[in-house]
Write a structure and sequence with these properties.
Dipeptide-binding Protein, domain 3; 350 residues; D-Maltodextrin-Binding Protein, domain 2; alpha+beta; 2 domains; single chain; three-stranded antiparallel sheet
Length: 350
């Protein structure tokens, strides 16, 4: 409505930089707030944000000096940008974990060839898909090494992360045996929904996963869409198999588990649990975590919840992608693992 439009085009707030101009999809201009209540560590007078969706155009703008900071640097361009002399690539692991979600609530799997049944309701099928995926090859070939394999839906740097949990081994023979036990030895056809402009090499990642799942006689059609179409689709739960990423803004595993693995009840919990995975034991644990103030006890509960969710294969974990920002050598900034870029820590000069 008109009120929402007003909110999108004007800024409220008392931050170190104020909104001066807002043209969605074109440019947004921030100017130093002379009446800011605190000290501003930045010496910048103005910061201009320019969306450049095309990878090559974005790299060209950085290398030509038309922009001072650019992200993300496509993984295939990191070496070229680093060698350019006037810019540097700032890299580091991102908190975001990527994973595959599966419809586990519909009686018939949408966008699939199976009639009157949902293979993903069977844990053996979920495990077979997991073990057919060769994450090391995906990271080497699709991510050019700029990713870390994940065994959980949260990564290092998130409170509750369990470094001792290992991924299930890539084992096509074991995966085929599980498919046969579940009654799907002949495989089936299904659609994998993916964004094409949200995560690093997202569409290429899905295409490579589809090729790996063919070892199970599973015929995967990849439907890659721009995020503007993709997210409305999966948020109305119009997908049977999909790629998603999650960064717990709280830096705590409860945030991820509550959004992604709690049984969807319509009051916040399970809001992004688009596959409809439900486990009453997990829900009980999450309620305990929410009210437990003793950190040691809370961490024990978090561990149990994460291990339970991993054992159920509610999701197939993939990796944490690496951050890669292209930065002019005349700019200083701080790279945060949650991929935010606080202006107050950005400036010009040494």
């Amino acid at each position: 409505g008109a009120a929402g439009q007003a909110a999108a085009l004007r800024a409220n707030g008392t931050g170190p930089f104020r909104l001066a101009e807002r043209r969605p999809q074109q440019r947004t201009v921030f100017e130093r707030n002379m009446r800011y209540w605190g000290t501003i560590e930045s010496n910048a007078r103005q910061i201009v944000f320019l969306p450049i969706p095309d990878n090559e155009a974005r790299v060209a703008a950085l290398l030509a000096g038309r922009v001072d900071v650019m992200e993300p640097v496509p993984v295939q361009d990191i070496e070229r940008v680093s060698a350019a002399g006037l810019v540097r690539v700032v890299t580091g692991p991102e908190l975001r974990t990527l994973f595959l979600g599966m419809d586990q609530h519909s009686d018939e799997l949408p966008y699939a060839s199976v009639r009157g049944a949902n293979p993903f309701k069977d844990r053996r099928v979920r495990q077979a898909f997991y073990q057919a995926i060769d994450i090391d090859t995906l990271i080497k070939n699709v991510m050019r090494g700029a990713a870390t394999p994940a065994a959980l839906i949260v990564g290092p740097g998130v409170n509750g992360f369990q470094p001792d949990v290992k991924r299930l081994p890539h084992d096509v023979a074991a995966a085929r045996a599980l498919m046969a036990q579940a009654g799907y030895g002949e495989g089936f056809a299904l659609t994998l929904d993916c964004p094409s402009d949200r995560y690093v090499n997202d569409a290429a990642l899905c295409t490579a996963i589809a090729a790996q799942l063919a070892t199970l006689q599973v015929r995967v059609t990849v439907r890659a869409e721009p995020k503007a179409q993709y997210y409305p689709r999966i948020l109305r739960r119009d997908a049977g198999f999909y790629l998603m990423g999650w960064t717990p803004s709280t830096y705590d595993a409860h945030g991820a588990l509550n959004a992604l693995a709690a049984c969807p009840r319509g009051e916040g919990a399970g809001h992004f649990n688009l596959g409809g995975y439900c486990n009453p034991r997990l829900d009980a644990l999450l309620l305990q975590v929410q009210t437990q103030t003793d950190k040691t006890r809370r961490d024990v509960l978090l561990r149990e919840a994460l291990l339970l969710q991993a054992a159920d294969i509610a999701y197939i974990p993939l990796h944490q992608q690496a951050l890669a920002w292209g930065v002019s050598k005349k700019i200083r900034l701080v790279q945060m693992a949650d991929n935010t870029m606080p202006f107050k820590w950005m400036g010009v000069g040494p």
